[in-house]
Design goal:
The protein is mainly beta. Among the domains are: 64 residues, Sandwich (Immunoglobulin-like), CATH 2.60.40; 69 residues, Sandwich (Immunoglobulin-like). It is built from 3 helices and 16 strands. A 4-stranded antiparallel beta sheet has the order 5-4-7-8, with no helix packed on it. The chain has a 4-stranded antiparallel beta sheet with strand order 12-11-14-15, with no helix packed on it. Keywords: Membrane, Transmembrane, Transmembrane helix. InterPro entries: PEGA (IPR013229). It comes from candidate division KSB3 bacterium.
Protein backbone atom coordinates (compact mmCIF):
# COMPACT_ATOMS: atom_id res chain seq x y z
CA UNK A 1 0.00 0.00 0.00
CA UNK A 2 2.78 2.26 0.64
CA UNK A 3 3.98 1.74 -2.92
CA UNK A 4 0.63 2.79 -4.35
CA UNK A 5 0.77 5.98 -2.47
CA UNK A 6 3.91 6.77 -4.24
CA UNK A 7 2.21 6.66 -7.67
CA UNK A 8 -0.92 8.56 -7.01
CA UNK A 9 -1.89 10.93 -9.81
CA UNK A 10 -1.26 14.53 -9.35
CA UNK A 11 -4.19 16.66 -10.26
CA UNK A 12 -3.68 20.13 -11.50
CA UNK A 13 -6.32 22.74 -11.30
CA UNK A 14 -6.25 24.10 -14.84
CA UNK A 15 -8.28 27.10 -15.62
CA UNK A 16 -11.30 26.57 -17.93
CA UNK A 17 -9.96 28.97 -20.53
CA UNK A 18 -7.09 26.66 -21.44
CA UNK A 19 -8.57 23.93 -23.71
CA UNK A 20 -6.58 21.31 -25.55
CA UNK A 21 -7.00 21.88 -29.41
CA UNK A 22 -5.64 20.17 -32.54
CA UNK A 23 -2.69 21.90 -34.19
CA UNK A 24 -3.55 24.28 -37.11
CA UNK A 25 -0.92 22.99 -39.61
CA UNK A 26 -3.27 20.24 -40.95
CA UNK A 27 -5.68 22.86 -42.20
CA UNK A 28 -2.95 24.65 -44.12
CA UNK A 29 -1.92 21.44 -45.84
CA UNK A 30 -5.53 20.84 -46.83
CA UNK A 31 -5.86 24.30 -48.33
CA UNK A 32 -2.62 23.89 -50.32
CA UNK A 33 -3.83 20.56 -51.65
CA UNK A 34 -7.05 22.15 -52.88
CA UNK A 35 -5.11 24.88 -54.61
CA UNK A 36 -2.81 22.40 -56.39
CA UNK A 37 -5.75 20.27 -57.48
CA UNK A 38 -7.49 23.35 -58.83
CA UNK A 39 -4.41 24.40 -60.77
CA UNK A 40 -4.03 20.94 -62.29
CA UNK A 41 -7.71 20.88 -63.20
CA UNK A 42 -7.48 24.24 -64.96
CA UNK A 43 -4.36 23.13 -66.83
CA UNK A 44 -6.07 19.94 -67.97
CA UNK A 45 -9.12 21.90 -69.19
CA UNK A 46 -6.88 24.33 -71.09
CA UNK A 47 -4.71 21.58 -72.60
CA UNK A 48 -7.55 19.33 -73.80
CA UNK A 49 -10.31 21.81 -74.63
CA UNK A 50 -9.02 25.35 -74.93
CA UNK A 51 -5.63 24.82 -76.67
CA UNK A 52 -5.76 25.74 -80.43
CA UNK A 53 -5.75 22.72 -82.69
CA UNK A 54 -2.44 22.34 -84.52
CA UNK A 55 -2.73 21.45 -88.16
CA UNK A 56 -0.91 18.33 -89.20
CA UNK A 57 0.39 18.05 -92.77
CA UNK A 58 -1.97 15.94 -94.77
CA UNK A 59 -4.77 16.15 -92.11
CA UNK A 60 -7.60 18.69 -92.22
CA UNK A 61 -9.81 19.24 -89.11
CA UNK A 62 -13.42 20.24 -89.54
CA UNK A 63 -15.70 21.28 -86.68
CA UNK A 64 -19.09 19.62 -86.88
CA UNK A 65 -21.94 20.38 -84.40
CA UNK A 66 -22.90 17.39 -82.28
CA UNK A 67 -25.36 17.58 -79.30
CA UNK A 68 -24.86 21.32 -78.99
CA UNK A 69 -21.10 21.05 -78.84
CA UNK A 70 -18.42 21.22 -81.48
CA UNK A 71 -15.90 18.45 -81.91
CA UNK A 72 -12.88 18.39 -84.16
CA UNK A 73 -13.20 15.69 -86.73
CA UNK A 74 -10.04 14.89 -88.60
CA UNK A 75 -10.37 13.78 -92.10
CA UNK A 76 -7.39 12.67 -94.08
CA UNK A 77 -6.82 14.45 -97.33
CA UNK A 78 -4.50 13.32 -100.05
CA UNK A 79 -1.33 15.42 -99.78
CA UNK A 80 -1.03 18.01 -102.49
CA UNK A 81 1.90 17.05 -104.66
CA UNK A 82 4.66 19.55 -104.63
CA UNK A 83 5.33 21.22 -107.94
CA UNK A 84 8.18 19.55 -109.72
CA UNK A 85 10.57 21.29 -112.01
CA UNK A 86 9.70 20.62 -115.63
CA UNK A 87 12.82 19.23 -117.30
CA UNK A 88 14.01 21.45 -120.06
CA UNK A 89 13.92 19.73 -123.42
CA UNK A 90 17.29 18.63 -124.62
CA UNK A 91 18.58 20.78 -127.44
CA UNK A 92 17.87 19.25 -130.77
CA UNK A 93 20.96 17.74 -132.35
CA UNK A 94 21.36 19.29 -135.74
CA UNK A 95 23.38 17.10 -138.00
CA UNK A 96 25.98 19.00 -139.90
CA UNK A 97 25.17 19.02 -143.56
CA UNK A 98 28.20 17.73 -145.39
CA UNK A 99 29.63 20.26 -147.71
CA UNK A 100 29.15 19.29 -151.32
CA UNK A 101 32.28 17.88 -152.85
CA UNK A 102 33.27 20.00 -155.78
CA UNK A 103 34.01 18.00 -158.86
CA UNK A 104 37.49 18.64 -160.13
CA UNK A 105 38.61 19.58 -163.60
CA UNK A 106 41.43 18.11 -165.67
CA UNK A 107 44.32 20.04 -167.20
CA UNK A 108 46.52 18.80 -170.05
CA UNK A 109 49.58 20.84 -170.98
CA UNK A 110 52.00 20.45 -173.87
CA UNK A 111 54.89 22.51 -175.13
CA UNK A 112 57.17 22.73 -178.13
CA UNK A 113 59.76 21.58 -177.38
CA UNK A 114 58.63 19.10 -174.73
CA UNK A 115 60.23 18.94 -171.30
CA UNK A 116 59.38 22.48 -170.22
CA UNK A 117 58.90 23.06 -166.50
CA UNK A 118 55.29 23.80 -165.56
CA UNK A 119 54.39 26.05 -162.61
CA UNK A 120 50.82 26.57 -161.34
CA UNK A 121 50.29 29.47 -158.96
CA UNK A 122 54.09 29.69 -158.61
CA UNK A 123 54.61 26.03 -157.62
CA UNK A 124 56.36 23.52 -159.90
CA UNK A 125 54.07 20.55 -160.63
CA UNK A 126 56.02 18.76 -163.38
CA UNK A 127 57.14 18.95 -166.99
CA UNK A 128 55.39 18.85 -170.33
CA UNK A 129 53.65 16.85 -171.55
CA UNK A 130 51.35 16.94 -168.51
CA UNK A 131 48.24 14.78 -168.86
CA UNK A 132 44.91 15.11 -166.94
CA UNK A 133 46.25 16.99 -163.92
CA UNK A 134 43.36 17.41 -161.41
CA UNK A 135 42.50 20.90 -160.15
CA UNK A 136 39.64 22.52 -158.31
CA UNK A 137 37.42 24.71 -160.52
CA UNK A 138 38.77 28.23 -160.85
CA UNK A 139 41.29 30.43 -162.63
CA UNK A 140 44.97 29.53 -162.45
CA UNK A 141 48.20 31.15 -163.53
CA UNK A 142 50.24 28.63 -165.56
CA UNK A 143 53.92 29.28 -166.34
CA UNK A 144 56.07 27.45 -168.88
CA UNK A 145 59.86 27.60 -168.52
CA UNK A 146 62.42 26.18 -170.98
CA UNK A 147 66.08 27.09 -171.64
CA UNK A 148 65.69 30.54 -170.14
CA UNK A 149 62.40 31.26 -171.92
CA UNK A 150 59.37 31.86 -169.73
CA UNK A 151 55.75 32.19 -170.74
CA UNK A 152 52.75 32.77 -168.49
CA UNK A 153 49.10 32.06 -169.31
CA UNK A 154 45.82 32.33 -167.35
CA UNK A 155 43.69 29.19 -167.68
CA UNK A 156 40.13 28.56 -166.42
CA UNK A 157 39.37 25.11 -165.01
CA UNK A 158 35.75 23.90 -165.21
CA UNK A 159 34.39 21.15 -162.96
CA UNK A 160 34.33 17.79 -164.72
CA UNK A 161 35.69 19.25 -167.95
CA UNK A 162 39.12 18.77 -169.59
CA UNK A 163 41.24 21.82 -170.40
CA UNK A 164 44.12 21.57 -172.90
CA UNK A 165 46.81 24.08 -173.77
CA UNK A 166 49.96 23.91 -175.92
CA UNK A 167 52.73 26.50 -175.90
CA UNK A 168 55.36 26.83 -178.61
CA UNK A 169 58.57 28.53 -177.59
CA UNK A 170 60.08 30.98 -180.06
CA UNK A 171 63.20 30.14 -182.09
CA UNK A 172 62.64 26.40 -182.44
CA UNK A 173 62.13 24.53 -185.71
CA UNK A 174 59.50 21.93 -186.54
CA UNK A 175 59.10 19.02 -188.96
CA UNK A 176 55.86 17.59 -190.34
CA UNK A 177 56.77 14.03 -191.37
CA UNK A 178 54.51 11.91 -193.58
CA UNK A 179 55.10 8.73 -195.58
CA UNK A 180 53.46 6.94 -198.48
CA UNK A 181 52.16 4.44 -195.94
CA UNK A 182 50.61 5.48 -192.63
CA UNK A 183 51.70 3.97 -189.34
CA UNK A 184 55.40 3.92 -190.12
CA UNK A 185 57.80 4.08 -187.20
CA UNK A 186 59.90 7.26 -187.15
CA UNK A 187 63.26 7.81 -185.47
CA UNK A 188 65.06 11.14 -185.35
CA UNK A 189 68.77 10.96 -184.65
CA UNK A 190 68.27 7.38 -183.49
CA UNK A 191 65.53 8.17 -180.93
CA UNK A 192 61.92 6.97 -181.43
CA UNK A 193 59.72 9.97 -182.22
CA UNK A 194 56.38 8.34 -183.06
CA UNK A 195 54.47 7.11 -186.10
CA UNK A 196 53.50 8.82 -189.33
CA UNK A 197 51.89 11.19 -189.84
CA UNK A 198 54.01 12.96 -187.23
CA UNK A 199 54.56 16.61 -186.25
CA UNK A 200 57.84 17.19 -184.44
CA UNK A 201 58.23 20.58 -182.80
CA UNK A 202 60.77 22.30 -180.61
CA UNK A 203 63.80 21.33 -182.65
CA UNK A 204 66.91 23.38 -182.24
CA UNK A 205 68.51 24.62 -185.48
CA UNK A 206 70.78 21.98 -187.00
CA UNK A 207 70.93 18.69 -188.92
CA UNK A 208 68.70 15.68 -188.24
CA UNK A 209 68.56 12.14 -189.60
CA UNK A 210 65.07 10.74 -190.10
CA UNK A 211 64.58 6.97 -190.37
CA UNK A 212 61.20 5.56 -191.43
CA UNK A 213 60.46 1.84 -191.19
CA UNK A 214 57.53 -0.54 -191.41
CA UNK A 215 57.17 -4.30 -191.42
CA UNK A 216 57.13 -5.60 -195.00
CA UNK A 217 58.71 -2.41 -196.39
CA UNK A 218 62.19 -1.15 -197.01
CA UNK A 219 63.64 1.11 -194.33
CA UNK A 220 64.16 4.62 -195.66
CA UNK A 221 66.56 7.22 -194.27
CA UNK A 222 66.69 10.96 -194.96
CA UNK A 223 68.84 13.84 -193.68
CA UNK A 224 67.41 17.34 -193.24
CA UNK A 225 68.72 20.72 -192.09
CA UNK A 226 66.48 23.19 -190.23
CA UNK A 227 67.13 26.75 -189.25
CA UNK A 228 65.91 28.84 -186.31
CA UNK A 229 62.12 29.04 -186.29
CA UNK A 230 61.91 27.10 -189.58
CA UNK A 231 59.09 24.66 -190.39
CA UNK A 232 59.49 21.91 -193.02
CA UNK A 233 57.10 19.34 -194.49
CA UNK A 234 58.90 16.05 -195.15
CA UNK A 235 57.33 13.31 -197.35
CA UNK A 236 59.12 9.96 -197.42
CA UNK A 237 58.31 7.20 -199.90
CA UNK A 238 58.71 3.59 -198.75
CA UNK A 239 58.66 0.50 -201.01
CA UNK A 240 57.49 -3.00 -200.36
CA UNK A 241 60.12 -5.66 -199.97
CA UNK A 242 60.88 -7.44 -203.26
CA UNK A 243 60.02 -4.51 -205.53
CA UNK A 244 62.56 -2.59 -207.58
CA UNK A 245 62.87 1.15 -207.74
CA UNK A 246 61.79 2.62 -211.01
CA UNK A 247 63.11 6.00 -212.12
CA UNK A 248 60.46 8.64 -212.27
CA UNK A 249 60.16 10.76 -215.40
CA UNK A 250 58.96 14.32 -215.07
CA UNK A 251 57.46 15.79 -218.27
CA UNK A 252 55.81 18.90 -216.96
CA UNK A 253 57.04 22.30 -216.05
CA UNK A 254 54.60 22.70 -213.16
CA UNK A 255 56.08 22.92 -209.65
CA UNK A 256 56.62 19.49 -208.20
CA UNK A 257 54.84 18.38 -205.06
CA UNK A 258 57.26 17.48 -202.26
CA UNK A 259 56.23 13.83 -202.54
CA UNK A 260 57.00 13.86 -206.27
CA UNK A 261 60.33 15.52 -205.68
CA UNK A 262 61.18 12.93 -203.06
CA UNK A 263 60.10 10.11 -205.36
CA UNK A 264 62.43 11.42 -208.06
CA UNK A 265 65.31 11.57 -205.60
CA UNK A 266 64.75 7.96 -204.65
Amino acid sequence: MQQQDKYEPILYNLPHSQEIRQPKNHFAVFICSLIIVGILTLFAIWYFYLQPTQSTPGVMTTELPENGSSAAVASKVEPTPLPTATPEPAPAIVEATPEPVLEKGFLTLRSSPAGADVLIQGSVIGQTPLQDYELEPGTYSVTFSYNGQTFQQELVITAGEPTEYTHRFQGFASLNITATRSGCDVKINGKPAGRTPLLVEGLSPGSYTIVVSKKGYHTTEKAVNVGKGEHQDIVIMIRRLGTKRQPATVTTDRPLHPSERLRNEL
